[in-house]
Amino acid sequence: MRDENCIFCKIASGEIPSTTLYEDGDFRVIFDLAPASPGHLLILPKEHFADLLELDEAVAAKLLPLSARVARAMKEALSCPGFHLVQNNGEAAGQTVRHFHMHIIPRYGKEELLLWKPGECTEEERAELCRRIGEKLQ
Ligand code: 5GP
Ligand code: ZN
Question: What domains appear along the chain, each with residue ranges and CATH number?
């Protein structure tokens, strides 16, 4: 499926040209327009899925092996000792483009890491959260 108003559908299909690192029947791997660090990549499925909860299982099964393959090449080529795989779901989590995409962000060891601030949780709170989420787990 394709969403006529989706920029990533247009990029993934090739309708909008992009510097493409890799392409196959399911995915296009491109460079982020506003990279967090040099080499920041995006893996776009060619089909339109808004987020992880919509992602087709067959496509999802290919995503992690491809992420590792691309990240391995990136590490070797750019000599970055680490990298992030990041995937945002929903506006509240910072997703700005509602077409599923996986970020691969190289880390060179000198950047400030601003991922999240460690918080606190009691054993009772954890048990209550576990009960509530567990009830919904299918
Ligand atoms: P999100 O915040 O949704 O997880 O990430 C969206 C990412 O897409 C951002 O990092 C943003 O810089 C990137 N982006 C937005 N529009 C374009 C575009 O037209 N081309 C490319 N290559 N990247 C884009
Ligand atoms: Zn799309």
Answer: 7-136 (3.30.428.10)
